[in-house]
Design goal:
elongated; UDP-n-acetylglucosamine1-carboxyvinyl-transferase, Chain; 23 strands
Length: about 450
């Protein structure tokens, strides 16, 4: 499997380093949007960012080779590639969306602080590292500023598997006397990250682990399928209970294709509806988008599903709706800001309740600068539709808020400048070019 690209060795030479990328980001950190053009055309979804981040962490568990297809080349993924390279894995791009990764016979147990602090998902290194090392030191993660994001559920679960964990000077320090031991773990809340971490820790543990009240997100299922392809024994991913029978090692070389990104696709769907456009999303899994499709239909958007595509159009005036974010299959918190933007010009009153991340309403303040009428009280936002938004200078506070503000710019009269555009690059591949291919006018400056 690995011979086809002999001569290409370490990851550092072949992956655009996150540090270089940061240089680009500082230079081009503003998106200028000229509004008023409906999005029309067809666009292909990228591979799922959140699946890929977890799967790259899972590569720590193998000494074998992995070819990973449908990988989005976005800055969060590049940072994660740099982190796993520092831990001893080798990775390089075979083409624009395929990675070749070689597992390490010996992995380092300490994550590089400068990189890990940039990425919330670096907390997913803890489970696989604890499965392979007696001692680990994982930098406390950074990432989007959308709420407190504690790790108590990860800790409780890993404790049950026999790990001792402490936080010392910005690091999580973990110790385990020998192999992790299978156990029964009940999560108080179906956390995506805790489910993924515990699943990765449990695959190499001794005996059976039963994880209850786990997250059912499609990305959890994708990770389980990937782990099983490497030789893990996981059943039940996608339901409330996951059973993992520990194995001594994961030795299968794997070629695996990441699922389509439902959040990226959903963002384009909302953008299509918000601009009164007509867009077909290709290479998606429509059931993964059902929570969004159902709400768009309720708002009078036409959503037509085929086997692996979805067409979104707006033949009639839109209607106000109410949304509550919930764990999957509820409405995704990662699509909430985009929907708030859409609803800001729908006549009548819409209400959004944010149940997952308490800071996800920061975008409301920016939308108000564009003329939106949104009142926020705790976890509830009340949106009174205004006739139109006006272009303004606004600031992205997190990844999805950034995407939402670009959508607002597409809807608005005049020019909108979205500052802190590096947040958008964390999660959306070639965002402006792909929007422009649908008729938008967005420029990175
Ligand atoms: C993942 C996604 C993120 C998405 C979120 C919810 C990745 C890389 N990120 O984030 O895009 O918005 O799921 O769908 O996959 N919580 C605790 N204790 C814990 C862990 C979580 O209280 O130990 C709480 C969090 O504060 C939050 C809620 O649980 O309120 C959901 O968090 P979680 O599902 O863990 O989200 P992430 O895995 O961080």
């Amino acid at each position: 499997m690995g011979g086809a690209h002999a001569g290409i060795t370490g990851a550092r030479a072949h992956i655009k380093l996150a540090t270089e990328q940061r240089g680009d980001e500082q230079a081009l950190n503003k998106l200028v949007v000229r509004g008023g053009r409906p999005l029309v055309g067809r666009i292909r979804a990228s591979g799922a960012k959140n699946s890929t981040l977890a799967i790259l962490c899972a590569c720590i568990l193998t000494e074998s080779e992995v070819i990973l297809e449908n990988v989005p080349n976005i800055s969060d993924i590049r940072v994660m590639l740099e982190i796993i390279s520092c831990l001893g894995l080798r990775a390089y791009w075979l083409d624009e969306d395929t990675l070749h990764i070689t597992g390490a016979a010996r992995v380092s147990g300490e994550t590089p602080h400068e990189l890990a602090k940039k990425l919330r998902a670096s907390n997913l290194l803890l489970g696989p590292l604890m499965a392979r090392k007696r001692r680990v030191r994982v930098s406390l993660p950074g990432g989007c500023n959308i709420g407190s994001r504690p790790m108590d559920l990860h800790f409780k679960g890993l404790n049950s598997l026999g790990a001792d964990l402490d936080i010392r000077s910005g690091y999580i320090e973990g110790r385990v006397p020998g192999r992790l031991q299978g156990a029964k773990v009940y999560l108080d809340f179906p956390s995506v990250g805790a489910t993924e971490n515990l699943m990765m820790a449990a695959v190499l543990a001794e005996g059976q682990t039963v994880l209850e009240n786990v997250a059912k997100e499609p990305e959890v299922v994708d990770l389980a399928n990937f782990l099983n392809a490497m030789g893990a024994k996981i059943r039940g991913a996608g339901t409330d209970i996951i059973r993992v029978n520990g194995v001594p090692a994961l030795g299968n070389p794997v070629r695996y294709s990441v699922i389509p990104d439902r959040i990226e696709a959903g963002t384009f769907m909302v953008a299509a509806a918000a601009t009164g456009g007509d867009v077909t999303l290709e290479r998606v899994i429509p059931p993964h988008l059902e929570p969004l499709s159902a709400k768009l239909r309720e708002a009078n958007v036409r959503v037509e599903e085929r086997e692996d595509s979805i067409r979104v159009s707006t033949p009639a005036p839109l209607l106000p709706i109410n949304i509550k974010t919930m764990p999957y299959p509820g409405f995704a918190t990662d699509l909430q800001s985009q929907m708030m933007t859409l609803l800001s010009t729908v006549p009548g009153t819409s209400i959004i309740v944010e149940n997952i991340f308490e800071n996800r309403f920061q975008v409301a303040q920016e939308l108000r600068r564009m003329g939106a009428q949104i009142e926020v009280e705790g976890r509830v936002a009340i949106i009174e539709g205004v006739p139109r938004l006006q272009g303004a200078s606004v600031r992205a506070t997190d990844l999805r808020a950034g995407a939402a503000l670009v959508i607002a710019g597409l809807m608005a009269e005049g020019v909108t400048e979205v500052h802190n555009a590096h947040f958008v690059a964390r999660g959306y591949r070639d965002f402006e070019a792909r929007l422009n291919s649908l008729g938008a006018d967005v420029e990175r400056k």
